Amino acid sequence: MKFLDESQEARLVAAIHRAEQLSSGEIRIHLEPECAGEAMDRAQQVFEQLGMTKTAERNGVLVYLAYADKKFAILGDQGIHERVGSSFWEEQKTALLNHFQSGHYLDGLEAVVLGIGKALAEHFPHQGEDDVDELPNEISRG
Ligand code: CA
Ligand code: CA
Question: What is the H or E stretch that residue 4 is in?
């Protein structure tokens, strides 16, 4: 099961790119079929592995999905977490869950990327010419 085809994946990468044009923050999506334990534990592991704790302003956000197991987590680094608080992540998770429950995975992932992008833009505006794409926008897979 590939979960997303190339054009669907391209749509998500474009959404990440769009979000990051408004913010210095960094968004990544990690997809894998299965997750044995808690999605949040696994997301934390992936976050480290992808070097997401190394952004200058600690404003990376990971959207993690184990699609076959239907488990997911959204994890923001301390810089963004301190500003938006837990309620924001809860809102995004609920939005994602609603989409997933109707089988709209692509729409859900896209909407959540743009929602996170909005919050990032508010707290970490884009730095213009000095802005660096610190983490690749491509989807990573486990
Ligand atoms: Ca950036
Ligand atoms: Ca990026």
Answer: none
Residues 22, 108: Cα–Cα separation, whole Å: 20
**How many angstroms is it from 100 CA to the middle of ligand 2?**
24
Asked whether residue 2 carries a pLDDT value surpassing 90, the answer given is no
* HSE, side-chain direction, 13 A CA sphere, residue 120: 29
Q: What are the tokens at 26? A: 């960094």
Among the bound ligands, name the one nearest to the CA of residue 121.
1
Rounded Cα distance between 65 and 7, Å, is: 18
Q: At 1, is the pLDDT very low, low, confident or very high (cuts 50, 70, 90)?
A: low
Residues with CB under 5 A from ligand 2 (ion): 20, 26, 133, 135, 137
Report residue 92 as tokens.
């995004």
Q: Which residues contact 134 (CB under 8 A, 6 or more apart)?
A: 26, 54, 55, 56, 60
CA distance 108 to 100: 7
State pLDDT tens for residues 48-83.
999 999 999 999 999 999 999 999 999 999 999 999
